[in-house]
Amino acid sequence: MSSKTTGRKNISPTFNEDEVGEYLLEHPDFFSQNPEILVNMATPGRFEPGKEGVVDFQQVMLDRLKGEIENLTACTQDVIETSRTNMSYQTRTHAAILALLSVDDAQTLAHIVTQDLPLLLDVDVVAFGFERDGNATPTLLSLPGVRAYPKGYVDGCLGEGTEVQLMRDVLDDGSIFGEAASLVRSAGMARLRQGAYTPTGLLALGSRTGGAFHPGQGSELLNFLARVVEKIFHRCLETAPLPKL
Fold first, then answer.
1. Which pLDDT score, from 0 to 100, does residue 59 have?
2. In the CATH scheme, what architecture does the domain 76-239 have?
3. Which pTM does this prediction carry?
4. Which residues of 70-109 are buried (b: 16+ CB within 10 A; e: fewer)?
5. How far is CA 34 from CA 4, 6, 8, 42, in A?
6. Domain extent listing, the chain
7. Residues 96, 90: Cα–Cα separation, whole Å
8. Closest C-alpha to 210, from 165, 169, 181, 172
9. Could you tell me if 245 and 109 are in contact, meaning their C-beta atoms sit under 8 angstroms apart?
10. What distance in Å separates the CA atoms of residue 167 and residue 186, rounded to the nearest whole number?
11. DSSP conformation letters of the chain
């Protein structure tokens, strides 16, 4: 019998069953790389109870295939559920943006963000605020629901230059969510960029469900929502600036 090269090792022309078994254990992918050998092998029949040392090779292969099919089915179901969830988030975000687009004054915008968006986005609380920096800050902070942050707070909260931060576990002292701080377990937060009439701000979505927001989620929709909010604020203040206090 001539030797055969498997691509990694030469099998000796003379070998015993122990050596074959040892080789196969060391190379569990042998039959995957050499399927023609498996096809031509004579497999044992069904396992006979009471007969020790007999392995039902066909059953082992069927069990393995069954396991692979079950894993594939589970992965497929996860993809379907994720797609449904993403579609729900997308639909809710679109509804929220449509509600915001009808706004033409900053006071109404503040009301919609804090009162209507929680229902539209299916979260427990939506909060936002601005840093105390810039000419428009005092009047912005007079709007219902708008919170005041010290200068540099947003960078400290999100990270310098970071637009969105998703947090699985949140411990808020009330600076972000106010009286609802004890309710919030997870949160998604986005930067509101500085404009001609607005300093840097923060838009925060909070949920009482731990893990409702987490770092593995996509952040594109939240980032897009924040960009819409900031631009409408800029537009409202540009066309009808708030009165000076």
1. 67
2. 2-Layer Sandwich (3.30)
3. 0.63
4. eeeeeeeeeeeeeeeeeeebeebbeebbeebeebeebeeb
5. 12, 8, 12, 15
6. 76-239
7. 10
8. 169
9. no
10. 6
11. ----B-SS-BPPSS--HHHHHHHHHH-TTHHHH-HHHHHTS----SPPTT-TT---HHHHHHHHHHHHHHHHHHHHHHHHHHHHHHHHHHHHHHHHHHHHHT--SHHHHHHIIIIIHHHHHT-SEEEEEEES-STTHHHHTTSTTEEEE-TTHHHHHH-TT--EEEESS----STTTGGGTTT-SEEEEEEEPP-SS---EEEEEEESSTTSS-TTS--HHHHHHHHHHHHHHHHHHHHSPPPP-
Q: Which two tokens mark 40?
A: 């031509």
Residues in the chain: 245
Residue whose structure tokens are 């006071």: 107
Closest CA to 100 of 238, 235, 239: 235
What's the pLDDT tens digit per position in 61-80?
A: 666 766 777 777 767 665 65
Sign of CA dihedral 67, 73, 76, 82: negative
Q: Residue 196 corresponds to which tokens in the numbers above?
A: 């001609």
* pLDDT tier, 8 (very low <50, low <70, confident <90, very high otherwise): very low
